[in-house]
């Protein structure tokens, strides 16, 4: 049996016209060679060489839930999906190695949308040093993209949520609150401040942060995806500690103050509970916080109320993180 | 911050009532310990130890596309998703090691559906010797399940689609046509023959087949997921060979004959083009086909028409495999 030749995706085509294999070819046609990738797309599985233990993480984005096609361009959707997934790898202290994507879409989706989305994935993959090695393409009523990523610990131990110790300093690398403020802007029908809208569309992940924290001896680390309080809450629970944050450690960014004032919100809600910027939060032995990281608090023994996160010595009133079913 | 306690899924609850973290707990609460899994669910990523090169494959099933909730029980949907994914690992000659699942569902889905589905995944994972190590749970308008699996080559080379050589014998391990015939039965509103319906709902993958083929020196191998002709077509193209199949090598199973007769179909359409049974097809040097494998043809040099699959010396009239967007 020979595979019939089909046209490449252009503006005029839908996925139904291009076909499953046409889309796969357009995704895999221009992949860069990577010495770690022994077998790329096109067989039953990809084959990748890693040196140490393997870190795995998987993340799904759904059209209308995690992104709105009228707000985000397809390449932004692709970039964001990869950035969010790779952030988990670096938060474990691993080196990003390989990525597979499962792409579900309706047959009447413009093939160009799918192609630009996967181009965005490749852009962000190149930024973070990860190789796209394969995937699955299938039809469904709505666009659903699952990105699964693999990191290499290269002989070292993972940096877990459970390693924070009383006395450690708590530090942050990357932005918080920007994505949530950008979402607020878009939700109110505005397109500016542009920096916030852009931050919502594609998070700016500091890909060097995981390695910086590892080198400095981080005792615990987490990707801030659900919001700073929610994610440090996971660290507190896993480590059996209390995390004390100080608001005077932060400078509220001017655009976030502006959006809070214009929309009647508390800027601290964005900073403390806004997710999806994918900063890294980590704990370090006293005096060993690396350059570029912002010290935001300290780890303490738990009190009577158990593991918790306090802000200026008090529980935060609106501390809820994001729950996908609520 | 403390994570508030929530009820476990029961018949009465929807995912919206149970919450994202409640569902995650119900999935990960009873995982068996596995020496290969260094860090299980609950951190930014799972950590897995593998000996050799890593094989990766990802597969998505969508409600209404790959399964119908009125035809398949939730645990059958889960079993099938895992079986299909693991079949790709063994078709590469690797040992199944770890699995992550991305589960997207509407908030009003019964929590028991999600729980039974993941229980089915665990049942099939145990059968195939793979460990569930993590996942992602998110809301969306329809159930979409992406299973990503990891295999260990343990110092050996992968068995690719591209290694078939003229003179090799072509052999098959597992059933073909059963799932397609079962689907035909259900599509016509019947529930029997039960063996076919069951084969459609949960494929019976021969998990030892990959190792058997490797030990015997298979030159190429593929998971028959799209249909025998379509998948051997991939082998022919990748290897630059012709594959000659002989129909007299097959015995048409009695239930398939019965369904073909009752529904006005050609039983050979089921056998040659029916997908989703996840048999393995492989090529072997002459005389080295292992026990339990059915010799179904031979590999030859390509003729003027290039790589192809012939049935009794002729192209098969209806040779199309499944294209998800057509």
UniProtKB/TrEMBL annotation, chains A, B:
InterPro entries on file: PurM-like_C_dom, PurM-like_C_sf, PurM-like_N, PurM-like_N_sf, ThiL-like
Domain PurM-like N-terminal: 42-151
Keywords per UniProt: ATP-binding, Kinase, Magnesium, Metal-binding, Nucleotide-binding, Thiamine biosynthesis, Transferase
UniProt-annotated stretches for the region Disordered: 306-326
Residues binding ATP: 135-136, 161, 225
Keyword Transmembrane in record: no
An example molecular function term from Gene Ontology annotations: thiamine-phosphate kinase activity
EC number, UniProt record: 2.7.4.16
Known pathway: Cofactor biosynthesis; thiamine diphosphate biosynthesis; thiamine diphosphate from thiamine phosphate: step 1/1
List of residues binding Mg(2+) 2: 59, 88
Domain annotation PurM-like C-terminal: ranges: 165-268
Catalytic activity entry: thiamine phosphate + ATP = thiamine diphosphate + ADP
Residues at which Mg(2+) 3 binds: 44, 88, 223
Pfam families hit by this protein: AIRS (PF00586), AIRS_C (PF02769)
Binding annotation for Mg(2+) 4: 44, 57, 88
Positions with a binding annotation for Mg(2+) 5: 226
Domain of life: Bacteria
Binding, substrate: 66, 276, 322
Residues at which Mg(2+) 1 binds: 58-59, 136
HAMAP family: TMP_kinase
More info: Reaction mechanism of ThiL seems to utilize a direct, inline transfer of the gamma-phosphate of ATP to TMP rather than a phosphorylated enzyme intermediate.
Family, similarity comment: Belongs to the thiamine-monophosphate kinase family.
Record function comment: Catalyzes the ATP-dependent phosphorylation of thiamine-monophosphate (TMP) to form thiamine-pyrophosphate (TPP), the active form of vitamin B1.
Descriptive protein name: Thiamine-monophosphate kinase
Gene this chain is encoded by: thiL
């Amino acid at each position: 049996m020979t595979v019939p030749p089909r046209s490449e995706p252009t503006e005029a085509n839908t996925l139904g016209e291009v076909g499953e294999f046409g889309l796969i070819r357009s995704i895999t046609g221009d992949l860069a060679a990577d010495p770690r990738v022994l077998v790329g797309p096109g067989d039953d599985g990809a084959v990748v060489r890693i040196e140490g233990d393997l870190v795995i993480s998987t993340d799904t984005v759904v059209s209308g839930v995690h992104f709105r096609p009228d707000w985000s361009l397809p390449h932004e959707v692709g970039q964001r999906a990869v950035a969010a997934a790779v952030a988990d790898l670096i938060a474990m202290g691993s080196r990003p190695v390989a990525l597979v994507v499962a792409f579900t879409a309706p047959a009447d989706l413009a093939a160009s949308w799918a192609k630009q989305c996967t181009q965005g994935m490749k852009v962000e993959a190149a930024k973070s040093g990860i190789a796209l090695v394969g995937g699955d393409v299938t039809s469904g009523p709505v666009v659903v993209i699952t990105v699964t990523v693999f990191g290499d610990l290269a002989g070292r131990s993972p940096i877990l949520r459970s390693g924070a110790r009383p006395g450690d300093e708590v530090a942050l690398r990357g932005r918080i609150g920007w994505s949530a403020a950008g979402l607020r802007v878009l939700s109110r029908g505005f397109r500016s401040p542009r920096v916030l809208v852009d931050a919502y569309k594609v998070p700016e992940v500091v890909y060097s942060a995981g390695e910086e924290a590892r080198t400095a001896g981080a005792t615990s680390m987490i990707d801030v995806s659900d919001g700073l309080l929610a994610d440090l809450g996971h660290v507190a629970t896993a480590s059996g500690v209390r995390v004390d944050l100080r608001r005077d450690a932060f400078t509220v960014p001017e655009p976030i103050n502006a959006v809070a004032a214009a929309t009647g919100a508390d800027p601290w809600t964005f900073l403390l509970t806004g997710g999806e910027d994918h900063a890294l939060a980590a704990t370090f032995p006293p005096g060993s916080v690396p350059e570029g990281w912002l010290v935001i608090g300290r780890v303490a023994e738990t009190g009577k109320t158990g593991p918790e996160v306090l802000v200026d010595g008090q529980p935060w009133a609106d501390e809820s993180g994001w729950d996908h079913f609520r």
